[in-house]
Records
---
Amino acid sequence: ASGSETDQGGTTDDFRVPVLLHTMPAVTIAAVNGACAGAGLGWACACDLRYAAPSARFNTAFLDVGVAGDMGGPWSLPRIVGAAKARELYFMPDKFDAQEALRIGLVSRVFPDERFREQVGAIVQRISEAAPIALRTMKAHFVEAERMDFASYIELESAHHLPMFLTHDTREAFAAKVEKRKPRFIGR
């Protein structure tokens, strides 16, 4: 393991994982089909998208083991489910199932256990076929929007928007739409 060791055997590098998941240029997906508690929940919340199988079980768990929480959960969870619900989940760490996670907006969809990998795989495939420049820029927009006021964000967005029309991939996407065919992106 790299990084300095913590009391529980983890490393300080572990605490960089949620930042990496949240800010890396690639779209990150949490596919939960089992236990998702504590640090694992923090990592899932740092992802762009979250999906669950009915077999998934969630829990903040931190107060149960006498710690205040880690892996960015108190930052990311309120942005996903709202401040009051996030506090409730942290202050009263009860286990909840995939349907409750869907109801509160923690996950976007719940897929049947027997088709879970196939369904999440189809989402991964769909995203991987998107125009790479547009996808990376879109993710960067979401990350930057969290740090800016609305007017500053609009300036950033407009600075990226017009040059995108000069890329091969955007021209290809428009041509493919008109020609009713699948676009062939090359990342330029």
---
Amino acid sequence: MSWSAERAQGFGPIAELYERVRPGYPRAAIEWMLPATAREVLDCGVGTGKLSDAIVATGRTVTAADPDPGMLAVLAAKHPEVATVVATAEALPFADAAFDAVVFGQSWHWVDPPRGSREVARVLRPGGVLGLFWNIRDAREPWVAELADITGHRSADELMLAAGGPDVTEPLAFDAAAEFDWVETVDVGTLVDLVATHGFAITATPEERERMLAAVRVLGERVADADGGIELPYRTYAYRFRAADR
């Protein structure tokens, strides 16, 4: 599956909502992925910059690429020091060997693997890192499994991970994989809005979407604590690949 104008138009109108409710990434996953020598990082398929937030916090220099100008505008408002460019992974407007690392948060499954792998390898310095991250709600928690039943959908990233992980091709080579468990506390409204930012909700009919979100609200109200908080468990999947030494 490749990035497309349709995808960009699907998420762009909800960029502010996406920024407000989508989860970030644990610091431990960033430190595991990026060696101390990786200072220049390209965040590709950046969206509103949820992964960039965590990388900027480590003091690294981040450049952001995404096919959606609306998403990039949200990132730029948060991080004016981050250079942004409208681009896809298959056609990066950067010089050869420009970056120590290229990362994708929740977006490699939109990339054409052979074309994207070649292009990422081109812009990586020798021995550079391709880092792929996915935040997946942890359905080992019973109520989270019930949430998945309500939506009746497994996302493209979940299907890809269940099938054995990301497809990355030569000249990049697999290095290591790791998983990070963590919990985010949300309220009922945030849980409903979070579901609303996914493609299956965006593309549903208005009636289907209304029924789905109403059921999510009922579930959220049932599992919330006395203060209205819901502990939403995540598992972050991280895959590291390396460019060949040249």
